[in-house]
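Hi all, long-time lurker, first post. I run a small reading group and we've been trying to get comfortable going from sequence to structure in the token notation. Rather than ask abstract questions, I figured I'd post a concrete chain and ask someone more experienced to write out its structure so we can walk through it together at our next meeting. Sequence below, copied exactly:
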Amino acid sequence: MSRRHILEVLSSTRVNKLPTGLRMLVTSRPLDDIYRTLGVMKNVKCKSLDDIPTAATIRDIRLYVSSELGQYRHIFAEPHFDEITQKSCGVFEWARLACEFIRPRPGIFPAKHFHQLVSQKSGGGGTLLDEMYTTILDDIMGTSTETLEVFRSMMRQIICTLEPLPATSQMAMRFKFPHEEDRYNIEEVMLCYMGSLLAGATDSLTPIRPLHASFYDFLTDEYRFHRFFIDISTDQADLAFACIQVMQEMLCFNICRLESSYLRNSEVVDLGEKVGRYILPHLSYSCRLWSMHLEKTKFCVSIAKSIQGVMSNMEIFFWVGVCSLLGCIRGASSSLAVAARWMQEDYEEIVAIMYDGIKFIQNFGSLMMESTPHLYLSAPPFCPEKSPLTSKISNSFPNIARLAAGNHQHWPSLQYVCRGHRRSVMSIAFSPD
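-- Answer (accepted) --
Happy to help. Here is the structure in token form:
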């Protein structure tokens, strides 16, 4: 769920239906859209961390450090806790990283790491965090340029992924990258060492994301001048290619094993469980977001041929079916429009199928949202006879119902009928979504 959607929910009247004794704590950076949305609400109390006395922050950091390292009193004593607290300069994230860095574990000498930290020159909060991130990454990678490239490649994938994915799904995507040298197990070679910086580093089912937004800033800001800088503009093509490959491999007929077309999707008791079981996170991600990566990618023949492989076969119907099960059928038509604009002149036939797919979704999208099996049963008989999609589904399902007479040759010009007004309509406006 995006920040925009969360803000819409928190600022809507639905919040008034929650129990009166319920309190929610929302923490964020001082972003303008958050302040504009929540700052004007009467039932919201805003508190800036800048207003908290420095002494209170230092006290809290001291308590945190002593709590985290208190079990290692055979190594650390109160003066060590004081020194780490003083070194933090009131930056809580620095203190957290410091405790992770010097915590005893196999192959680590805590005293050495402690002296390495406290010997650094103190600077501002951002500088302190940069120094801490550099120290931790230097310790993980040493001076190996090969290890550094593996790190950059892995983090570029994690950062460029539009929604956090667990390690199993990130690896499934990576093994579909176009270049063989990029296909390796990130969990074994790098991810397992990144627990202090990334959520999901040690749990293959937890989505991977930076534990703190400052780590993202550290890696992607080219003006920080460190060797760990990551250019996030270079990974979109790999992710676009991987998404299409995932769809081509995993899409299939009736993917969720729905047993009856007589039930609406809402009436299938275990539909949510089936979707979670059969539409894995990386397939869900690929079906919903492939066009967003494609849009940021220059035209590439290998990607175009992969798209052709999906659009020229029954996979286009299987993909639409997955989108209906995921509740994003309207986004599917937008994806086809993006892909059609991206393709070049040599692919007119595939572009025609894409635009035909948009018409198909516009006419039958609501039907499929009600009951996905009718994608194959009720929609095809009403497709125009000259639609490219009609021949595809007729060849694959020769025994489906057909109209004996009266079918259109082409898609009708009429797209939608607005109902509900009682008087003459003088003007009309459409929302972009």
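A couple of things your group might point at:
The first helix runs from residue 3 to 11.
The chain has a mean pLDDT of 85.
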